Amino acid sequence: MFLSVFDIFKIGVGPSSSHTMGPMTAAARFLDDLRGGAEKIPGAGKLARLSASLHGSLAFTGKGHATDRAVILGLMGCEPATIDPDKAEELEAELRATGRISPPGLCVLDFDPENDLVFDYGPPLPGHPNGLMLRAFDERGNPYLTQIYYSIGGGFVVTEAELAAEKAAKTQSLSAEKVAMGYPYPFGSAAEMLDMGRASGKSIAEMKRANECAHQDIAPRELSRQITRICDVMHACIDRGLRMDGILPGGLGVKRRAKAIHEQLLAERGSNLRQPHAANDWLSVYAMAVNEENAAGGRVVTSPTNGAAGVVPSVLRYYRDQCIGATEAGAETLMLTASAIGGLIKHRASISGAECGCQAEVGSASAMAAAGLCAALGGTNEQIENAAEIALEHHLGMTCDPAAGLVQVPCIERNGLGAIKAVSAASLALRGDGSHFMPLDNCIETMRQTGEDMNTKYKETSLGGLAVNLPEC
């Protein structure tokens, strides 16, 4: 499965790519099915009412991740990349008051969230921990159309049939498939990636750029323009997060801290008070700024998920503002290389916290950022692969157990630590020759196996770990 840089880095809204963006996208896709993309159940009358049920992790942490709001907004025709976050509450209130929606291209439909949107806390649907069922009924209450969707992490959404096809594809030769489809460098593993780099004399970023241009049928200049837009949204998210203060929504009473820390760092610049480890504080504050924005439902870029959205932007800003010799071309190299690593991890394991824990989210993001920074600083393909492996290896086993189901504790600080690990991994790799004991492919496979073995309560259900050890007030 080819994954574009714009599949890995998608513009959307917080607080979760899998629990907010994914369900919103699924609901919007269901509207497309109702407009003619899928046949209605034989014998059904006129379309009249909709319902939705959330299963598995979408049910257990759906309230904290605003999954119900996401489904509502999706059924009203909104999509993550274009919705105005400031209008979301107003739109939701409108539907809850009327119990009726008017999706573009469809008739007025009954949908009462109090009765028609169900959090099902029973067993999850069989395909994935993040499942939702959307149903339509005719005016007599008979079934009109039913579709099951799975939100598989990073804002990716698939139907039951698509999920089965994707799983089958993972057992086939990716290279043979992609050669047939015309991609110049069809690597499906880190080993293939390194072999193709040696054979072609090209860097990982150069191979990824060639694949992207072939995939989109565009010139390299246009690809650069689109990547710059993604980078601009990342920087804007950091800037907004550094300006905002107050209490994050959700009821935990978590204060925004990025603004105050940023002001302290600015005050220390050029003074004798500045400690050598202040670079770590800059990395942390950039990442925290993004994830505070994410927790508040603001505009972010999946990197590769919302829960891990602060790591790559933090390292990108660190490269731009604090690395000697930083260039726009270097930033593009960082993004292309990071997306190549992210695509490998998603294809060979997972980027979903509900599927493999936080090792699949912040761990993947840290590996992506480490590889990207190593490439931007002139690392060889072997050093880049080593950087990614170091970063991912030292996130193995990390659980996903957000307090109260909110992407706040421990998520915000964890992104800062993920960024610090990424820079350290890149630096270590650059000081070596690229040779190392554990290949990246083996590390990715270990992460997948660890996720499979991990107890479900530690995988984004808020049923274990930190989530059930809240301090007494």
From TrEMBL:
Superkingdom, according to UniProt? Bacteria
- What are the GO BP annotations of this UniProt entry? amino acid catabolic process; gluconeogenesis
Q: Using the record's annotation, list all stretches that form the Serine dehydratase beta chain domain.
A: 4-161
- InterPro entries per UniProt: ASB_dom_sf (IPR029009), Fe-S_L-Ser (IPR051318), Fe-S_L-Ser_mono (IPR004644), Ser_deHydtase-like_asu (IPR005130), Ser_deHydtase_bsu (IPR005131)
Q: Does the keyword Acyltransferase apply?
A: no
Record-annotated Serine dehydratase-like alpha subunit domain positions: 201-467
- Cofactor(s) this protein requires: [4Fe-4S] cluster
Q: Which pathway, metabolic or otherwise, does it act in?
A: Carbohydrate biosynthesis; gluconeogenesis
Write out the similarity annotation: Belongs to the iron-sulfur dependent L-serine dehydratase family.
Q: What is this protein called?
A: L-serine dehydratase
Origin organism is Paracoccus tegillarcae
